[in-house]
């Protein structure tokens, strides 16, 4: 009988812990700006063909790691206020060269994003790069 009471008491404690954890997680999701829902995407009325092509490239190649420009927490927002387009071209096609040459911006980006194994080395032609730049502007 005493053993049964201990088992029931333990189960009640576990249920209480699970319920409290559930409410804590939901409270964090409701108040944490990183977990908030994405804002509504409103497509531009006059998207150029170049913009559309850039968006296609971004979704196909970049979206695995980077959110689209219409989303919250877009670390690429205003990217061309930080770097120029010629540097961007090198960064997305030959990031390893920048890192090997100890480029400050490339090294900072690599450190800020956890020194993961991803290196940008896309084989884009000039038209694809122009389209991607158009999309990100």
Written overview of the protein:
- The chain starts with a helix and ends with a helix.
- It contains 7 helices and no strands.
- With 137 residues, the protein is mainly alpha-helical.
- The protein folds into 2 domains: 1-37; 49-136.
In short:
The chain has 137 residues and is mainly α.
Which key phrases capture this entry?
137 residues, mainly alpha, 2 domains, 61% helix
Query: Strand count, sense and closure of the main sheet?
Result: none
Number of helices, counting only DSSP H or I runs of 4 residues or more: 7
Helical residue percent band: 55-70%
Structural class of the helix and strand makeup? mainly alpha
Query: How many domains is the backbone divided into?
Result: 2
The tally of strands reads 0
Rg over C-alpha atoms, rounded to the nearest angstrom: 23 Å
Q: How far is the N terminus from the C terminus?
A: 72 Å
Q: Which stretches of 5+ consecutive residues score pLDDT under 50?
A: 28-42
Order of helices and strands: HHHHHHH
Topology diagram in text:
Layout (H helix, E strand, L loop, with lengths): L1 H30 L17 H14 L16 H4 L2 H9 L1 H6 L3 H9 L13 H11 L1
Helix pairs in contact: 2-7
């Amino acid at each position: 009988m005493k053993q049964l009471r201990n088992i029931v008491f333990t189960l009640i404690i576990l249920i209480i812990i699970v319920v409290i954890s559930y409410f804590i997680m939901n409270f964090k999701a409701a108040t944490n700006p990183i977990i908030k829902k994405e804002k509504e995407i409103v497509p531009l009325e006059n998207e150029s063909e170049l913009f559309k092509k850039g968006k296609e490239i971004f979704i196909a190649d970049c979206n695995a790691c980077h959110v689209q420009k219409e989303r919250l927490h877009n670390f690429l927002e205003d990217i061309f206020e930080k770097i120029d387009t010629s540097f961007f071209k090198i960064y997305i096609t030959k990031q390893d060269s920048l890192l090997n040459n100890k480029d400050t911006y490339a090294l900072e980006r690599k450190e800020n994003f956890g020194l993961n194994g991803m290196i940008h080395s896309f084989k884009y032609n000039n038209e694809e790069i122009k389209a991607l730049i158009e999309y990100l502007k």
